[in-house]
Amino acid sequence: MRLLSKAVQCAVSQREWSRRHFWGWLNAVFNKVDYERIKAVGPDRAAAEWLLRCGAKVRFQGFDRWHHDYNGLPTGPLGRYKIQAIDATESCIMYRGFDHLDGLKHVEEIKFNKCIYIEDTCLERLSSIENLQESVYMMEVVSCGNVTDKGIVTLHKLRNLEYLFLSDLPGNQRQTDDMHRLTSIPRHTFMWETKNQGATRI
């Protein structure tokens, strides 16, 4: 009986591992960059397709509506729709897809909320993109367990960042010396939320 129980547990574990492996592989496929596609339809359209494919939402410049349906993306002249805001809540976007962001020039708001694949290298990559350094002014990083101080600190490269909201980041210890580079810029408002104290300025 004990052997049977052990065999069942082993089979269940194997099935769970296979399922996780499959979804990890599929998410990696969703994040693959098609450079020919970017050339064909432009960076904003290609980035929108990537984001929606991964479960994120986008808002285009001049519009109030958020788009989350891949098949419902607007059609029209290439270059007409420019991404102004990205909401990646609970999406599967990951580092390998961040090349899609290189050609975006109008992104002002970015939200990473419960993104299991967002890590320090993602924030470093995003912060190194010159167009985003000029355009992004509002950002949220919430409940992303793989983000640490190392990634947060790189956001100081976003020169026009005016509002940064951080919450529920287990890997972030708010190291004073590291965070100084962020808070030393006077016009920035940074909010750090803890479970016990609520939101406070840092």
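That was protein one. Protein two is written in the same sequence-then-structure order:
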Amino acid sequence: MRSTSKGRRQFINNLGMGIVAVGMSNTSSFAFSPKSKALKKRSVEVGFITDLHHGYCADAQERLEVFIKEASSRKLDFIIQGGDFCHPIAEAQECMDLWNSYQGEKYHVLGNHDMDKGSKKEAMDFFGMESNYYSFDKGDFHFVVLDGNYISKDGKYVDYGHANFYIEQANRSLVNPEQIEWLRQDLEKTNKQTIIFSHQAFDEIWDGWSSPSRFAVRKVIDDANNSTGFQKVIGCFCGHHHVDDHSYINKVHYFQMNSASYYYVGEGYGSDGSRATYKDAIFAFITLDPSGEITIEGKKSSFKEPTPSQKNHPDAPRLSASISDRKVSF
């Protein structure tokens, strides 16, 4: 979709720690402060779920049913899944049918495990994705979906496919250079404030498994923010890591969104094999208010027993079976 509004003046950044068609027209209108009551626009409401792991978690279909039912009961602008959704195989058709039963707009992010039993192209076709990375507009906001599912092999960037990503961390979870340049151009073209969705993290997650491409992505984000009179990229949302966390880097909010299903604790620590399973489906509803606030309404649950604490898992104090409610300013 093509933007027709001029950029906003920069907000006063208030750190609250507790807390997809590409291209733009050259048409512009007046700049305005989003906090001006006379010009206040409608908030954008998003339903977000990630790391469902259909085909790996026995009750994934039931968890998705809970999300679709609640999302359908709300007046949302769109829903989006953050990757590791299902495999592109016949057994997962029930998952896609349920997802597609949602009557509103819906979007996909590719996750590494979506390519466990097929190629990236097969996963995209199964999901109905025309591109593995893309952008779109909704209301006063611009949304970008990135693909961090590349490995480095013999000096080339290679698509994930058929579980080829089980290699050293430095050579996987990569964003290819062509996509980095596309992101730079996409952010140059939009005059809207932007949210980025990805599977892998671009901040500094405590377990050390952030994307090795995070510095290149953050440089593009910082350059976009420093070249305008307003904060162009305001937030990034990811899944993949199955944690509940938030960080703030160069005036950009980075949200780690928890899995719908479980945390991988390894053999001997889980309530279901190597999985510390959540009692309930975990997902969130995100409100983007043009006046300058991001609000996350997260679902709360608890671990099935035996819990990571009961199993004396070394990271138990950091683990959560919920997505925290948060309200931050931009």
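The chain is about 15% helix and 20% strand. Keep this in mind for the problem set.
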